[in-house]
Amino acid sequence: MSELTDLSELSEPDESSGSAVGPAGPRAPAEAAAPAQEYTGAGGIPSAGDSLPMIAGAATTIAGVGAALALADIGSPLRAPFTLFFLIVAPACAIGAALRGLDPLSRSVVAAGGAVAVDLLIAQVMLALHTWTVRGGVAAVAAVSLLLFLLAHARRRGRAAKSRAS
User: Which of 36, 39, 55, 95 is most buried, by the most CB atoms less than 10 A from its CB?
Assistant: First the structure.
């Protein structure tokens, strides 16, 4: 009976051996319980940065399919969510490309807010001019996003050319 009254052995690790005795018996040494380290070697666990291009490609595909479904006026259950994804992601990526100087969190917040502002501005202008259509709205958002992206790219290229010249 005296064995069961001393419960401290069940929950506290033994510092001398690096293991603890639990209800199911001894545990593995503390070295084996260490958190997994990032391994980027071939055949191992891929790092978190390796999946970023795949996620970006999937997002681009979803946005492209959404724009194509809306512009071609194809009835599909995926049309509404994919088109909405395009309407948010296209201007957000264009605005995010122009904001390279900000830290990633600030850039994503400002880009998301800017994307909503671009969408609302385009919708308001089209409604005021009595030219609102879904296809026209998607085309206008695509055009404005492309223009913003090209302006950001041209500005960055101009800065690089000035720094090389001086």
Answer: 95
Full DSSP string of the chain: -HHHH-THHHHSEETTTTEEEETTEEPPPTTTTSPPPP--STTSPPPGGGGHHHHHHHHHHHHHHHHHHHHTT---TTHHHHHHHHHHHHHHHHHHHH-TTS-HHHHHHHHHHHHHHHHHHHHHHHHHTT---HHHHHHHHHHHHHHHHHHHHHHHHHHHHHHHH-
Residue among 112, 113, 147, 140 nearest 126 (CA): 140
> What confidence tens digit (pLDDT) does each residue in 112-126 have?
999 999 999 999 999
Per-residue pLDDT tens digits for 8-22: 455 445 444 444 454
Which class for 82: exposed (0-12), middle (13-18), buried (19 or more C-beta within 10 A)? buried
**How would DSSP label each residue in 51-78?**
GHHHHHHHHHHHHHHHHHHHHTT---TT
Nearest to 60 by CA among 110, 94, 99: 94
pTM score of the predicted model:
0.65
